[in-house]
Write a structure and sequence with these properties.
Layout: E1 5-11, E2 18-24, E3 27-32, E4 35-39, H1 44-55, E5 64-68, H2 74-82, E6 88-92, H3 96-102, H4 107-110, E7 119-122, H5 126-130, E8 137-142, H6 162-171, E9 172-182, H7 187-195, E10 198-206, E11 214-222
């Protein structure tokens, strides 16, 4: 069994595209068109997105975290492992089918993460959640596309432009962290983060611990004296 088999398909709101869950003998992948968004064989950078953010929240035992993108649950699982029992995690997922897969064919990857009492899953655009309240989160983790642009969904670009970064900073508490996953470097985005009031650390992480492509993580911390 070497060929991919389509297990299920779900509509991507705001686009004519569909998101497909594919399976073969060695694992699962989620695709939009010909673009692979994620795979259970290449997930080290998705885990690192949460692990590195949690390391920076050790002095906040009741930290509040927002994760944009449920995916295959690797970021969520790593966040729960790194946060304390008083913490809270809101997960935003735009595609309802992804949440269905999390309790169906991908349940073994989630390891019960969605049943953790610290977790609230919301089936809506993370952009709307970010705009709900000021200083609501200690960390916002974004992995909603293949980088800081709307490659699979044009509306995703709003999260990464100047307006989106300003809203993310507004939703973060003092010293809060905006952590962004990308499949590739983007010097303009890194410069934009700095311009919008963040101190930025760029980290390269291989997709499978010590092999595979290098993905990029930006850990952007809210600076004092923010740009308004």
């Amino acid at each position: 069994m070497n060929d991919w088999i389509q297990r299920d398909v779900g509509a991507v709101p705001g686009t004519p595209d569909t998101m497909r869950l594919m399976q073969r003998s060695d694992g699962f992948t989620i695709m939009v068109g010909k673009v692979e968004l994620m795979s259970d064989l290449l997930c080290a950078s998705e885990r690192a997105l949460a692990t590195l953010a949690c390391e920076r929240l050790r002095d906040r035992p009741a930290a509040r975290m927002l994760i944009g993108g449920l995916g295959m649950g690797f970021t969520l699982r790593a966040a729960l492992d790194g946060l304390g029992p008083q913490a809270g995690v809101v997960v935003s997922e735009l595609v309802p089918a992804v949440a269905t897969w999390a309790r169906g064919p991908l349940a073994h990857l989630f390891e019960g993460a969605l049943d953790d009492p610290r977790v609230v899953l919301r089936l809506e655009d993370v952009n709307r959640i970010i705009q709900e309240a000021p200083a609501a989160y200690d960390a916002i983790l974004l992995d909603v596309d293949n980088g800081p642009e709307g490659a699979t969904r044009r509306q995703n670009s709003r999260l990464y432009d100047e307006w989106g970064l300003k809203r993310a900073r507004w939703a973060l508490r003092p010293g809060g962290i905006l952590a962004v996953w990308s499949g590739h470097p983007d010097r303009k985005f890194k410069a934009r983060l700095k311009r919008m009031g963040f101190s930025v650390e760029e980290i390269r992480i291989r997709s499978n611990v010590d092999s595979g492509r290098r993905h990029v993580l930006w850990l952007a911390t809210v600076r004092s004296g923010q740009v308004e």
